[in-house]
Design a protein that fits this description.
Blueprint lengths: L5 E9 L12 E2 L2 H4 L9 H11 L7 E7 L2 E8 L18 H12 L23 H6 L15 H11 L13 H15 L3 E3 L3 E5 L6 E5 L5 E2 L4 E3 L3 E4 L7 H11 L18 E2 H6 L3 H10 L13 H10 L12 H6 L4 E5 L9 H6 L5 E13 L4 H11 L7 E3 L8 H4 L4 E5 H5 L3 H6 L10 E9 L10 H8 L2 E7 L34 H17 L8 H12 L9 H12 E2 L3 H7 L5 E8 L3 H20 L14 H14 L10 H14 L5 H18 L4 H7 L4 E3 L5 H7 L9 E3 H10 L6 H33 L25 H20 L13 E4 L4 H12 L6 E4 L2 H13 L4 E3 L6 H11 L6 E4 L1 H4 L10 E4 L6 H8 L11 E8 L3 H7 L7 H13 L16 E4 L20 H6 L41 H10 L14
Parallel strand pairs: 10-17, 10-18, 13-15, 13-16, 14-15, 16-17, 19-27, 23-25, 23-26, 24-25, 26-27
Antiparallel strand pairs: 1-4, 2-3, 3-4, 5-9, 6-7, 7-8, 11-12, 12-13, 20-21, 22-28
């Protein structure tokens, strides 16, 4: 058999009678033999296909047979269309008959070359049967690098270092073995990019020998060596979270500092690379012609014969840049500071009509070659990148420029740096269309071809719609990298399944047995955007091309077409760099981590609120007949629907609203039950349950007042007299047994020597009046805003859709506030000096109190922190409202915290994260919108989710903030779940039931079938916590001559402190009352009610003016 023929496989033909041949050798098969009547009817289709194939001279098909029992085994081979001597293309395929023949032939062919008993050639094998998660998990880990020798010595040295597991030049941190392999793989992809076989061809293995051939399953063209495309110089670094991807990128940058940026390959519309000096001074013809074409001016001295120094300098700046890393004399540095560039000429169409040719603007673009890497990261990671550079890179190795809010400097300045660091938002401001709309000049970034761009947290590259992505795609860049532990929306790294070793299937279906889900197809589409958009990989220069050649073939009711999954895997394997989790776990052993779900019971007041919300929803659902415009699931009520879902989530932590409408809902529900006999049994039962819970809530002393008046979470007030509770409690009329957290802090500040109880009583009413005034101002603004939106969101006023009341918004003091505080402090000190010493007088309230909140989750968090080791640090994820309430609790218990949510400025976030590293700060509060990706918080070893996270990908990302490379301690992660609520069901759901679509369906089910929480038979946790109840800066020995204290809490954090995870954190105990400055960690929300603290000086002034008799009780009305 000719060596050019491809051994396709075998056929098995059934016989009606024996063949008069006893030879075991292979006999050539001819058409005469096939036309005999010895074959069974079941083999007639295969016989017919063979006859047609043998009759097509273009195929040059060869077949041979031999007996096996009572059947005939036939070997089949053919000559591919690109083989020498093939007449495939010379013999025309009339009416597509050849395609039909080959399709049928491949459908019947079996694997194997001797027995004919293998599986069907076109059956779905283990790869074809994989879905996206399995495909991603099965990608091979990088192997030990095999570099080609380079002409440049520095190139060979950089490669040798990686092969010998020696840190790249300039890196002072020891890399793990898998990091060496990943960096080597990235360097190989940049310097020795592989070739991608034309994706319209599907690779198949020859039978009986080693060999690969390619089949176009659309035209059924078969080739041994089809066309190919160069893969991009770059790819996607998708190592799992917390494995040091930033260090890998930095190592890649330092390993290639010597490599110059080069112009595009195989471009016919660009000039040779020249230097600006040569363009203006060289007298040679080619420079003169280029100057004339581009309009470049000569040097004032005119052209002259260049010196040997000039020629050497021009060659050096276009070649190996290693000289830049060596100390050079100043005059040599100046000579080598010249820049290299090239020119791009617009295409010129000779066939264009003369009129159009004259109007065509033939602009010629000058492009500098910048040996600089653009690093684009989310704003919250800018400081982390700077810290990583300082931590891992030796001094003087890299020159980094951070782009702030100011305009970009000129291109020559930018090109003098090795790294340009930008946040995504600032990078997007350089996008062309954005700048045109702002009437700005085109971006400086467009003036150069950059060596490299690194898009950290590159999962955002799955969309082309943002300004940042449009600019990234537009920029002229030699090497492109996306960096993300989760490159697509649904792939969950770190928790992905390992590759299966299952064998191929023997089904005869031409498609896989499993259809791809919408999630799988979305991930494939996003990869297409990355490959065709950002990476600009041929032949997928457009998203539409990737859709046509890859993604569309994955769609199908019965599953992807044959070869489609293998094609996608081939593309992913060539552009992605990742290790299997088991490899990293073996080479970089991390301390153990424990993930637990903590089941908590509602506080009785929480349970009532939750059931009232459920009752409001049930009433809305069953009294609106599932279709009225006030129905939460009505298409017009999207905003109200989303707010209701959010309120249910918040009710598991703490929820209150100014007007929940429980009275009206109760009357409306009762009326509906009495006057509508057509209600279904299920609906009637739900409404009866709602009535029961609404009546129970309205008959509970204090509950309605807390919902109406309260903003902060209430705390037990058993250690105070009824006289104090009446003026400070938000349920003063019915059951003043609790005081909110913010009022407790204010009351603590007033608990000074010499102050009398009746004065605190008056201050309570004054503080309440101030609180109401601030609240009503906010309510007026909300009402005005609501009136503007009423036409569009009429149903948003429904009681269950009321936005929650938020805890106090706290901001760090600005300069004016600091000056005001200093003046106030000076005034206080002056008054203290002028007044007699009151330190011998008693305080009106105890020095310490015992209390707990009426939120079970707040109590659990406080108990966990107070019971922890003093060196433990906590990262807590929650909603902004939840974190606002929790901040008040932490302040009350003297637990220092910082807040780094999306509602504060990027500068404040960076400052907060830096402060968290200090040993006297124990808690970092984050929201999942910002804090779940990219941050390195290994200084913490404890993490708490205030509620279950629907997306396991987001949860895994968040956990990797503390359980990652660099963590030295065991980590504990807790997920707080309220017993009997929807949270419990979410926590029990498997990963396959947590898609975005599933979340929407589940949210809808929460409205359609609201569930109530009954009283648990288990005993409640009655544990109380000790709280310091003397003002900051005072203790038992405090006198009026005490030193002046700094009222600016920020100053306490800005003092230099040695950071160490084992440095003990001071925590207050009953017998250890020392000065503590409470950290001002800002919280934010759209609705806030601020308390106005009363300065100590004003208390003293009123004390002098007030009569000594006990004042009358003041009644403050509440709307």
């Amino acid at each position: 058999m000719s060596g050019h023929h491809i051994q396709l496989g075998t056929l098995e033909l059934g016989l009606t009678s024996g063949v008069p041949s006893s030879s075991d050798s292979w006999t050539p098969l001819d058409e005469v033999f096939l036309r005999s009547d010895i074959f069974t009817p079941e083999s007639s289709e295969q016989v017919s296909t063979l006859l047609h194939a043998l009759g097509d001279p273009g195929l040059s098909l060869r077949a041979s047979w031999r007996m096996r029992g009572i059947s005939l085994v036939v070997r089949v081979s053919l000559l591919p269309s690109d083989a020498p001597g093939s007449i495939w293309r010379r013999v025309r395929d009339r009416k597509g008959e050849r395609c039909k023949i080959l399709r049928k032939l491949f459908f019947h062919l079996r694997r194997g070359w001797d027995t004919g008993q293998g599986g069907y050639l076109m059956a779905a094998n283990s790869v074809e049967d994989q879905r996206m998660a399995e495909l991603y998990a099965s990608l091979p880990s990088p192997e030990q690098p095999d570099f080609e020798a380079s002409f440049w010595t520095a190139d060979n040295e950089a490669k040798r270092r990686l092969m010998d597991l020696e840190e790249p030049q300039g890196i002072k941190t020891r890399l793990y073995q898998y990091q060496f392999r990943s960096v080597a793989k990235m360097l190989q992809m940049e310097t020795q990019p592989k070739r991608l076989v034309d994706p319209i061809f599907t690779p198949l293995h020859e039978e009986g020998r080693d060999g690969v051939y390619y089949v176009n399953l659309t035209t059924w063209d078969i080739q041994r060596h089809p066309g190919w495309y160069d893969l991009p110089r770059g790819g996607i670094l998708c190592e799992q979270m917390g494995t040091g991807k930033t260090l890998m990128c930095i190592s890649l940058i330092t390993s290639t500092l010597h490599q110059p940026c080069t112009p595009p390959r195989n471009s016919i519309d660009t000039s040779d690379v020249v230097t600006d000096h040569a363009m203006r001074t060289y007298p040679f013809d080619r420079y003169g012609q280029l100057r004339e074409q581009v309009g470049e001016t000569l040097h004032p001295a005119g052209p002259g014969i260049p010196s040997l120094v000039d020629m050497c300098a021009d060659i050096a700046v276009k070649s190996d840049q290693s000289y830049r890393r060596s100390p050079l004399p100043t005059h040599i540095d100046e000579i080598l500071s010249r820049q290299s560039c090239f020119y791009t000429f617009p295409a010129y169409d000779d066939a264009m009509r003369e009129a159009k040719r004259k109007t065509l603007s033939r602009s010629i673009r000058k492009t500098y070659l910048a040996n600089t890497t653009l690093v684009v990261v989310p704003g919250i990671l800018v400081q982390q990148w700077k810290d990583e550079l300082a931590k891992h890179v030796e001094d003087g190795v890299l020159k980094m420029y951070e782009v702030g809010t100011e305009a970009l400097p000129d291109i020559e300045f930018l090109m003098c740096h090795d790294i340009i660091l930008l946040d995504v938002a600032r990078f997007g401001q350089e996008e062309t269309m954005h700048r045109i709309q702002q009437d700005w000049e085109p971006s400086v970034l467009l003036q150069a071809r950059w060596k490299r761009i690194i898009l950290d947290e590159g999962h955002v590259a799955g969309s082309k719609t943002s300004n940042a992505m449009r600019l990234a795609i537009t920029l002229d860049v030699e090497r492109r990298w996306l960096v993300s532990g989760t490159p697509t929306k649904h792939l969950q790294q770190g928790g992905e399944v390992e590759a299966s070793s299952s064998t191929g299937l023997s089904s005869r279906s031409s498609t896989t047995s499993r259809a791809w889900s919408r999630r799988d197809l979305e991930d494939a589409t996003r990869i297409g955007v990355m490959v065709g958009g950002f990476l600009a990989a041929e032949p997928f220069r457009s998203e539409a091309t990737f859709q046509e050649k890859v993604t569309n073939l994955l769609r199908g009711r019965d599953g992807p077409k044959y070869g489609a999954v293998r094609r996608l895997r081939y593309i992913m394997g060539n552009i992605m760099v990742k290790h299997a989790p088991r490899v990293i776990d073996h080479e970089a052993l991390l301390p153990p981590t424990t993930l637990s779900t903590q089941m908590l019971q509602f506080h009785p007041m929480q349970r009532i609120t939750y059931n009232v919300l459920a009752s409001l929803i049930a009433s809305n659902v069953h009294t609106s007949n599932f279709e009225d415009q006030d129905y939460f699931l009505h298409p017009r009520n999207t905003e109200a629907f989303n707010q209701v879902i959010k309120n249910l989530h918040l009710a598991c932590f703490w929820y209150s609203a100014h007007d929940m409408g429980a009275h009206d809902c109760l009357e409306r529900t009762k009326h509906h039950l009495e006057n509508n006999e057509s209600i279904t049994a299920q609906g009637r039962q739900a409404l009866q349950e709602a009535v029961r819970h609404l009546e129970a809530a309205l008959h509970t002393p204090g509950w309605e007042e807390w919902m109406t008046n309260g903003v902060s979470i209430p705390y037990e007030a058993g250690d105070f007299t009824e006289y104090i509770r009446q003026s400070w409690s938000d349920s003063m009329d019915s059951n003043p047994d609790a005081i909110d957290g913010k009022s407790l802090q204010l009351l603590r500040d007033l608990n000074r020597n010499g102050v009398e109880e009746h004065q605190l009583h008056v201050e309570g009413w004054v503080a309440r009046a101030d609180k109401c005034q601030d609240f009503f101002k906010i309510m007026e603004l909300e009402e005005k805003r609501g009136q503007r939106e009423a036409e569009h969101f009429a149903s948003a006023k429904a009681a269950a859709a009321q936005k929650p009341l938020a805890a106090t918004k706290r901001k760090g003091p600005n300069k004016k506030e600091q000056l005001k505080l200093q003046l106030e402090q000076a005034k206080m000190n002056a008054e203290r000096a002028a007044k007699p010493d009151l330190s011998h007088l008693p305080r009106p309230l105890p020095h310490v109190i015992k209390t707990k909140s009426r939120s079970s989750k707040v109590n659990h968090v406080v108990e966990s922190i107070l019971a922890s080791d003093l060196t433990d640090k906590f990262v807590i994820f929650g909603d902004t409202y939840e974190l606002g309430h929790l901040t008040e609790a932490l302040d009350l218990f003297d637990i220092r915290s910082v807040f780094a949510g999306h509602s504060v400025s990027s500068t404040k976030r960076v400052e907060a994260l830096r402060n968290f590293e200090k040993p006297n700060v124990q808690v970092c509060l984050l929201d999942l919108k910002l804090g779940a990706r990219g941050l390195n918080l290994v200084c913490a070893n404890r993490m708490i989710f205030l509620s279950p996270v629907w997306s396991l990908d987001v949860q895994a990302q968040a956990i990797k903030r503390i359980h990652r490379i660099g963590q030295k301690r065991a980590t504990w992660i807790e997920i707080l779940v309220t017993e009997g609520t929807f949270e419990e069901e979410i926590a029990k759901r498997s990963s396959t039931a947590r898609s975005e679509q599933e979340e929407k369906l589940y949210s809808r089910a929460m409205i359609e079938n609201p569930r109530f929480v009954e009283i648990s038979p288990c005993a409640q946790n009655d544990k109380l916590f000790t709280v310091r109840f003397i003002p900051n800066g005072e203790d038992e020995q405090t006198t009026t001559t005490a030193p002046e204290r700094d009222l600016d809490p920020a100053n306490d954090l800005d003092s230099p402190i040695e950071v160490s995870p084992t440095t003990p954190i001071h925590r207050r105990t009953d017998s250890d009352i020392e000065p503590v400055i409470v950290l001002q960690s800002p919280t934010a929300s759209s609705v806030a009610r601020d308390y106005i603290p009363i300065p100590t000086a004003s208390i003293l002034k009123r004390k002098a003016d007030q009569p000594t008799s006990k004042p009358k009780r003041v009644r403050v009305a509440f709307a």
